[in-house]
Amino acid sequence: MPFEHLAKAGFRQATRYLGRRGGKVIKNLTWEDAVKGLQHQTRETINSGKFHKGGFLDASEVKVMEDTFAKNTEEGLEFLEELEDAVLNDNNHNFQGHLFKNSREANADIQTAAIENSRGMKIDPDPDPDDLTPFGGWPLKKSGEKLVPEIDDNLSRSLLAANDQKDLVKSLRTPLYTGIAEHHIQITPEELVSSGLFDTMVKRQGLLEEQAIVTREYKAQKDALKGQKLPEGDRSFSQAKKNFKTNNRLLNDLASANIFTTTKDVFGINRPKLKKLLPIFGEGKKEWHHTQFFNSQGGKAFLNKVAQDPMVAANLFLKLRELEIQTSGTIKNLTLGDQVPHNEFHKMLRQKGFEAWYDPKKKMLRGGEADIGELLEAIAESVGKGETSINEMFDILEVFSERMAPWLDKQTKEQVGQRFENIPGFEEATESYAKDTDVKLGRVKKPKKSKAPQQVLPSKPPGSPGQGQPNAPNIKRLQELDNQLGDMMEGVKSK
Fold first, then answer.
1. CB-facing half-sphere around the CA of 246: CA atoms within 13 A
2. How far is 101 from 478, CA to CA, in rounded Å?
3. 210 and 275 inside one domain
């Protein structure tokens, strides 16, 4: 707790809050007593989940703090000091880092207990044949809940701490970066800083931090309304769910928007207006489909702790560009299709193990052992534990590019529809559109809008059908994934 806060709180209250006398923790200090010693605004945050600039504090997070206090009073008091600093000073970094660490430990404890309690139990003794993949039965993952990831602020802190370009380069040369094999490095810290691309990374960092806060706020609203009995006609909960889903998608697409490409992100475009300009977008019940990297896969690829390292992210983006793998909601990565074939297409992907999915019966995530997002996230987790090499993240993209991307392109065109870039009139219709984040990141230039009314552009419907945390995969097996995916492709073709 900063000294000036101690002065404001008064020595007596500060001593009570800190729970220390003569530098030692008071014996038998309770959680309730420690909370009572906090400033009123901080107590309100704990007791009611009141908003502060760092976000909402939900009940599960308070439980993590309380459990930490019960195990280690000294650490629990530090937790409260950091929370007070976040609430009163808007200094959220220490608190959020502490919360993230302890939440992971708590989840690990819960999983360990669940595994121990389930020993000898048989789950799904007679699985549905459709639930089997060439890898075996689909595993159940720990939760279907979408969590908003913490954005690593190392880049922001490096910028603030640096005196010159030499300092910046030094801070970017992290152990993760130095672990990347030479043949996977397409940009060095020196090149990132001297080229001015470091500024783009800083802007990207700021946008991610802002979007994560907004997304977390909407999640807190949704969670607060869940299970409440609302008046008839009250759509607060459905609107909160929609707001969270929309902003979570925006966060995923923003994280995976390739800063080394200039293809427009059009996922958030004004769709009613687009339907007027291109009637094909309004024919029947249309859906927009991410073609190669799905929305959630892009988030898993770039929002894990490893890929948030600036030099890892930059070189992953360049690897994706080299392999011509499309990410985010860009013209090259979006396909227009009708709802029914689109849904059936995803069902097929799940049956083959190429996409993880939420099982409402078991309230768990299933499968996806060949889901590129799940693989990248699992590799990142193993890299963080020191169990595998950072190069696995680059190697798996090469496998995906060779085996999976061409197959996805073919199946999507046949079963869903055409990519936006191939829809006649689409590029002309969106000529005057540019997403704000794209402009800020320098991916596209802000267009000069014409005052002349835009004409309706005729577009022929493409003549194709359809138009008109997991249980980590075994990292040792990644070396064999190339052959396995090849066998899966052959199996799919033969059917």
1. 11
2. 28
3. yes
- Which SS3 state, helix, strand or coil, does residue 263 take? coil
* Residue 413: closest CA among 458, 463, 344, 348: 463
Structure tokens at 218: 């909407």
CA angle 285, 288, 292 (to 5 degrees): 145
pLDDT for 308-356, tens place per residue? 999 999 999 999 999 999 999 999 999 999 998 898 999 888 887 888 8
> Average model confidence (pLDDT) for the chain?
78
Same domain, 167 and 219: yes
Q: Where does 339-404 have alpha helices with state H? A: 339-351, 372-384, 391-399
Domain end among 117, 142, 165: 117
In the chain, what is the greatest distance between 2 CA atoms, to the nearest angstrom? Answer: 80
Residue 260 per-residue DSSP state: T
| Spatial CB neighbours of 160, under 8 Å, sequence gap ≥ 6 | none
**Residue at 127 is within a domain:** no
DSSP run (H or E) holding 359: strand 357-359
- Determine contact, residues 381/388, Cβ cutoff 8 Å: no
Helix H or strand E encompassing 11: helix 11-18
Q: How far apart are CA 450 and CA 429, in angstroms?
A: 12
Q: Are residues 62 and 169 in the same domain?
A: no
Who has greater pLDDT, 29 or 215? 215
| Boundary-marking domain end, from 97, 117, 137 | 117
Whether residue 414 is found in the same domain as residue 466 = yes
Q: With contact defined as beta carbons under 8 Å apart, do 379 and 392 qualify?
A: yes
Q: Is 206 a domain residue?
A: yes
Residues 309 and 171 in one domain: yes
pTM over 0.85: no
Q: What is the pLDDT of residue 355?
A: 87
Q: Are residues 79 and 179 in the same domain?
A: no
Question: Do 343 and 486 fall into the same domain?
Answer: yes
Enter the tokens of residue 103.
């939440």
Give per-residue pLDDT as tens, 177-202.
999 999 999 999 999 998 888 889 99
The DSSP letter of residue 454 is P
Instruction: Single out the residue of 483, 461, 242, 236 nearest to residue 370, CA to CA.
Output: 483
Domain that holds residue 306: 154-228+235-494
Burial of 47 (0-12, 13-18, 19+ CB in 10 A): exposed
Q: Which of 101, 99, 100, 82 is nearest to 90 (CA)?
A: 82
Within a domain: 124:
no
Tally of domains in the chain: 2
- Most confident of the ranges 234-243, 319-328, 360-369, 398-407: 319-328
277 shares its domain with 162: yes
- Walk across the sheet containing 357-359 and list its strands: 140-141, 364-366, 357-359
Answer positive or negative: Cα dihedral of 300, 301, 305, 310. negative
**Is 423 inside any structural domain?**
yes
